[in-house]
């Protein structure tokens, strides 16, 4: 093999600016395949394509840290990376022995087979790979680079010193959002929503979100679908986030929230109620910024703290309306209008019920008498404990009529 007389060096006078090598993957006489980083923080993948006596020819591919990680993990071939550049083009660079380097922008489809890696060529890493940062923050760019649905959540808690946030409260927010996504995913999968019980494991795998990084500007966290998105059809994760963004877009408008929650059915109302409750505890607004690998998908929704407060009150009422109800003949053991609490005992069994009185029922119970007999209408509401994730059943009193 002919050896070039040109000493290896990184190019000068190109749009990439000053470069430094981060990691070399192939070496023969000099680096043949390597990553570089510019002084402005951009990453490039350099590939040797031609050696001549007085010049060397290279392809430089601008590449995201997410794409580098996928290359190293062998999720993407080298040919696929060079024929599908994230920015749409590559730089062809000629380094001469005179130092007057030349460059040109080139579209991947204009490259010959000899200039591209073989279809089955992958990056080989002998030891542990270098770290390439946390990755792209902008969701639609991150989604394209990773081929995964990407969701940025921004919180704006009023009483926190950003970028710090109470770990327990933040954990509860993340758990409640995942449970809401799972519940919506059950509906989006086949329309067969259930009020309780386990959701099918194959659905949970498709709706699973992984936390990838946090960022400043608010308290922000990036979540990505655990599975890759299908570029030719809408994945369940994408369908779920589309429905979730539509639910958030209903804001604090009661009619829109009611229509959306009745359409989604199942346990979605109770899970959305919990999300709003956890956000309410943090006294925060929310920005939901979703990016998708699929063109035409993705949406940004913003809710203020006031909207979240109002939406929680509305969804709480809708959740009760949608809940399963029963009527029982009962003796009124206790009733406190001020604290909105009740206790009744069934006349047909020894079973007792106690809990909250709905806001709408309070005016109708002002004259109720302790130890009198009533036909009580109670509704079953499933709530999730933030500390353990366990579901508990609570009975809410929505009606109380004297027995004839």
Mean pLDDT: 88
Radius of gyration: 30 Å
Structural class, please? alpha+beta
Low-confidence stretches: none
Question: Secondary structure elements and their pairing?
Answer:
Elements: E1 19-28, E2 30-38, E3 43-51, E4 55-63, H1 65-72, H2 78-83, E5 90-96, E6 102-106, H3 139-146, E7 150-155, H4 167-190, H5 201-207, E8 209-215, E9 219-225, H6 236-249, H7 254-264, H8 268-282, E10 286-291, E11 298-303, H9 305-322, E12 324-336, E13 341-346, E14 352-356, E15 373-384, E16 391-402
Antiparallel strand pairs: 1-2, 2-3, 3-4, 4-5, 5-6, 7-9, 7-10, 8-9, 10-11, 12-13, 12-15, 13-14, 15-16
Describe this entry's structure for a reader.
With 404 residues, this protein is an alpha+beta fold. It has nine helices and 16 strands. The strands form three sheets. It has a six-stranded antiparallel β-sheet with strand order 1-2-3-4-5-6. A five-stranded antiparallel β-sheet has the order 8-9-7-10-11. Strand 8 and strand 9 form a beta hairpin. The protein is elongated. It starts with 18 loop residues before the first strand and ends with a strand.
Structural descriptors:
single chain; 404 residues; alpha+beta; six-stranded antiparallel sheet; five-stranded antiparallel sheet; 16 strands; elongated
Short description:
Helices cover 27% and strands 32% of the residues.
């Amino acid at each position: 093999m002919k050896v070039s007389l040109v000493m290896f060096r990184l190019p000068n006078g190109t749009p990439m600016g000053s470069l430094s090598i981060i990691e070399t993957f192939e070496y023969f006489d000099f680096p043949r395949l390597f990553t570089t980083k510019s002084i402005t923080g951009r990453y490039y993948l350099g590939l040797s394509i031609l050696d001549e006596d007085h010049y060397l020819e290279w392809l430089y591919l601008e590449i995201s840290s997410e794409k580098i990680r996928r290359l190293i993990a062998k999720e993407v071939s080298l040919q696929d990376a060079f024929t599908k550049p994230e920015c749409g083009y590559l730089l062809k660079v000629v380094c001469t022995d005179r130092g007057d380097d030349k460059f040109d922008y080139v579209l991947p489809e204009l490259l010959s087979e000899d200039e591209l890696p073989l279809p089955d060529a992958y990056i080989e890493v002998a030891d542990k790979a270098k770290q390439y940062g946390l990755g792209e923050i902008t969701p639609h760019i991150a989604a394209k680079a990773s081929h995964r649905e990407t969701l940025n959540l921004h919180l704006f808690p009023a009483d926190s010193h950003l970028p710090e946030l109470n770990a327990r409260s933040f954990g509860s927010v993340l758990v409640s959002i995942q449970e809401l996504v799972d519940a919506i995913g059950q509906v989006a999968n086949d329309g067969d929503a259930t009020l309780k019980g386990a959701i099918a494991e194959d659905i949970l795998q498709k709706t699973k979100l992984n936390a990838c990084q946090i960022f400043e500007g608010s308290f922000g966290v990036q979540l990505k679908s655990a599975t890759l998105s299908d570029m030719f059809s809408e994945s369940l994760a994408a369908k779920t986030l589309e429905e979730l963004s539509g639910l958030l877009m209903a804001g604090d408008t009661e009619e829109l929230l009611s229509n959306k929650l009745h359409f989604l059915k199942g346990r979605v109302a109770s899970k959305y109620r919990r999300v709003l409750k956890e956000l309410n505890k943090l006294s925060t607004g929310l920005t939901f910024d979703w990016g998708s690998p699929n063109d035409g998908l993705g949406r940004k929704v913003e809710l203020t703290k006031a909207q979240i407060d109002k939406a929680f009150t509305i969804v709480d009422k809708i959740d009760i309306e949608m809940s399963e109800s029963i009527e029982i003949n009962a003796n009124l053991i206790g009733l406190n209008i001020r604290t909105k609490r009740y206790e009744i005992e069934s006349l047909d069994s020894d079973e007792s019920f106690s809990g909250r009185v709905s806001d709408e029922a309070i005016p109708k119970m002002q004259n109720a008498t302790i130890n009198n007999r009533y036909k009580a209408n109670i509704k079953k509401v499933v709530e999730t404990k933030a500390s353990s994730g366990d579901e508990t059943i609570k009975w809410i009193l929505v009606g109380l009529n004297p027995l004839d």
